[in-house]
Design a protein that fits this description.
The chain has 359 residues and is α+β, with helices and mostly antiparallel strands. The chain folds into two domains: 231 residues, P-loop containing nucleotide triphosphate hydrolases (Rossmann fold); 111 residues, Nucleic acid-binding proteins (OB fold (Dihydrolipoamide Acetyltransferase, E2P), Beta Barrel), CATH 2.40.50. The protein contains nine helices and 20 strands. The strands form five sheets. It has a six-stranded mixed β-sheet with strand order 6-7-8-3-9-10, sandwiched between helices. The protein has a five-stranded antiparallel β-sheet with strand order 15-19-16-17-18, with no helix packed on it. The protein has a four-stranded antiparallel β-sheet with strand order 2-1-4-5, with helices on one face. The mean pLDDT is 94. The structure holds adenosine-5'-diphosphate. Adenosine-5'-diphosphate binds next to helix 1.
Length: 359
């Protein structure tokens, strides 16, 4: 039996807006789950239904196999960290962290021991006497997390906890959250629109779009086995390149390139004759020049961006545009005509109508 079960969960807001459709998932104890997707896709709504802050319109939420739909937030043993980490400005870090326990009337000695332990996990030991205004954004966010993790809860929910931090603080805090998770082992559900955060933090990622779950999988699975065009394009930076076209005699033509789909799809190619498919490959899966047995394509270089560890080259082939990631030492010149190769296993073909990957 799983720890948390979401069974056909739906959210229809009072105004009739159907924000979440048939969300199904089993979550094991200790897992770090990330809900990711563009703004408005239903991540926070789902998280709030798990927290008990929002009614579940349809479906069942189970904790340890028991229906929890009707339980209030407190009874669910769940703690939540929000985007805006409103700390009490007139209270020290110590008092901010201790606040929940003080309200519950917990013994002072017990509180002290718990606050100290929490501060140690969060690297806040030296800041316990400070007021929030004397802390950096990252430190304030850690205090907010401390307030949540000091209570022994089963599940820890975080809604875009890093969105108020600058880019550098986000990277630091990201690794700190991973570290906190390792230390506490608490089951965590984390909402973000940032695919890098999702990839670096998650045991498993749930990709959502317009209220529907697109795919659930490990970062590895989402990157190497995307279920559809959306997931393939959402995970990875720069995103996967796509070429859409109609299959003619088993081939996809663009800008003078004839992609032989048989190499990838084998006998299935015939099923797609005359139909649209989407051909995809990642910027980083290419090699300049001709590689035997791989897909070989020609294109013109429009622009190059030297980034240090690699160069992004922007290419065109006919109407199509793509980005290739190459070694900076191999950077071609602008307006140069290049040939590049993509190994067959690094190519994805999607059904043009359903946008599902063709296996
Ligand atoms: P995300 O967290 O992925 O950005 P949300 O879960 O916040 O998305 O919102 C999902 C959709 O539900 C959005 O289109 C949003 O406008 C809508 N929504 C959120 N809250 C309400 C509400 N109280 N009433 C009606 N629609 C809402």
């Amino acid at each position: 039996m799983s720890y948390l079960t979401l069974k056909d969960i739906n959210k229809i807001y009072p105004n009739g807006y159907h924000a979440v459709h048939n969300f199904n998932m089993e979550i094991e104890k200790g897992e770090f789950i990330v809900f990711v997707g563009p703004s408005g896709c239903g991540k926070s709504t789902t998280l709030r239904m798990i927290a008990g802050l929002e009614d579940i319109s349809n479906g069942e939420f189970l904790i340890n196999g028991k229906r929890a739909n009707e339980l209030g937030p407190r009874e669910r043993e769940i703690a939540m960290v929000f985007q805006s980490y409103a700390l009490y400005p007139q209270m020290t870090v110590y008092d901010n962290i201790a606040f929940g326990l003080t309200l519950q009337g917990v013994d002072e000695d017990v509180i002290e021991q718990k606050v100290k332990n929490t501060a140690r996990i969060l690297g806040l030991t030296d800041y316990l006497d400070r007021l929030p205004r004397a802390l950096s954004g990252g430190q304030r966010q850690r205090v907010a997390i401390g307030r949540a993790i000091i209570r022994k809860v089963g599940v820890f929910l975080m809604d875009e906890p890093l969105s108020n931090l600058d880019a550098k603080q986000r990277v630091t805090m990201r690794s700190e959250i991973a570290q906190i998770h390792r230390e506490t082992g608490a089951t965590t559900i984390y909402v973000t629109h940032d695919q890098t955060e999702a990839m670096t933090l998650a045991d498993r990622i749930v990709v959502m779009k317009e209220g529907y779950v697109q795919q659930i999988g490990t970062p590895y699975e989402l990157y190497f086995q995307p279920a559809n065009v959306f997931v393939a394009g959402f995970i990875g930076e720069p995103p996967m390149n796509f070429v859409k076209g109609t299959v003619k005699e088993g081939k996809l033509d663009f800008g003078g390139n004839a992609i032989d789909l048989k190499m990838k799809l084998g006998d299935k190619t015939a099923q797609y004759e005359g139909k649209e498919v989407v051909f995809g490959f990642r910027p980083e899966s290419i090699e300049l020049g001709k590689v035997e047995g791989a897909y070989q394509m020609e294109a013109m270089v429009e622009l190059t961006e030297m980034l240090g560890d690699n160069t992004n080259i922007y290419i065109t082939a006919g109407e199509e545009k793509a980005i290739l990631k190459v070694d900076p030492h191999d950077t071609p010149a602008i307006d140069e005509k290049i040939t590049f190769s993509v190994p067959v296993e690094n190519v994805y073909v999607f059904d043009g109508e359903t946008e599902l990957v063709i296996k």
